[in-house]
C-alpha cells in the first residue's frame, strides 16, 4: 500500500472522502448553527472525548485546540458551509494510532451526546453521522 507514494491523492482528498459537496446539506449546516455553532459543538465534543475512558488515551496528550479547529472546518465543508478544510486526510491523521472499532464507536457516541446538548435536531445529527460513518475505512486500523 505504501509502494507508490507518488500516486497518493492530494493531502486532504479523503478528509471528506472525495465526494463532491452536497448542496442538500446546506440547511443542515444552518441547523448546526453555522460556523459559530460548530465551534461551540466542538468544545463539548472534545470535553466528552477527554472525559471518556475509551477515547481519553488518544486525546489527552494531543493538540486539542488544533484538532477542534480542523474538525470545525471539516464538518463545515461536509455540511456545505463556506469553509475550506486544509488538514490532513483521514488515513494520514490517524496512521499508527491503532484506532479500533470500539474507539470509533465511542467517539461517535461522544459526538452524539454533544449534539444532544446543543439541541441539534435528530434528523440533522443523522445527516452528519451518515457522512462520517464511511470514514471508518480510513481511520480504524485495528480489530
Ligand atoms: C469519523 C470519525 C473521525 C473524524 C471525522 C476525525 C477527524 C479528525 C481530524 C479532522 C483531525 C485533524 C487532522 C489534522 O491535524 O490535520 C483528527 C486528528 C486526530 N484524531 Fe480523529 N477523527 C475521527 C476519529 C477518530 C478516532 C476514533 C480517534 C481515536 C479514538 C481519533 C483520534 C485523533 C487524534 C489523536 C488526532 C490528532 C492527531 C495528531 O495529533 O496529529 N480520531 N481527526
UniProtKB/TrEMBL annotation:
Pfam families: Bac_globin (PF01152). InterPro entries: Globin-like_sf, Globin/Proto, Hemoglobin_trunc. GO terms for molecular function: heme binding; metal ion binding; oxygen binding. Heme binds at residue 94. Keywords: Heme, Iron, Metal-binding, Signal, Transport. This is Globin. It comes from Dyella thiooxydans.
Amino acid at each position: 500500500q505504501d509502494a507508490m507514494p507518488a500516486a497518493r491523492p492530494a493531502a486532504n482528498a479523503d478528509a471528506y472522502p472525495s465526494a463532491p459537496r452536497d448542496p442538500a446539506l446546506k440547511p443542515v449546516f444552518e441547523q448546526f448553527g453555522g460556523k459559530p455553532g460548530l465551534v461551540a459543538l466542538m468544545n463539548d465534543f472534545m470535553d466528552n472525548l477527554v472525559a471518556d475512558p475509551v477515547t481519553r488515551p488518544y486525546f489527552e496528550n494531543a493538540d486539542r485546540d488544533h484538532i477542534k479547529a480542523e474538525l470545525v472546518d471539516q464538518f463545515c465543508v461536509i455540511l456545505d458551509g463556506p469553509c475550506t478544510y486544509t488538514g490532513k486526510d483521514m488515513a494520514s491523521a490517524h496512521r499508527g494510532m491503532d484506532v479500533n472499532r470500539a474507539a470509533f464507536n465511542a467517539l461517535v457516541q461522544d459526538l452524539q451526546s454533544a449534539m444532544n446538548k446543543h439541541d441539534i435536531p435528530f434528523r440533522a445529527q443523522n445527516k452528519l453521522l451518515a457522512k462520517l460513518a464511511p470514514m471508518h475505512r480510513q481511520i480504524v486500523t485495528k480489530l
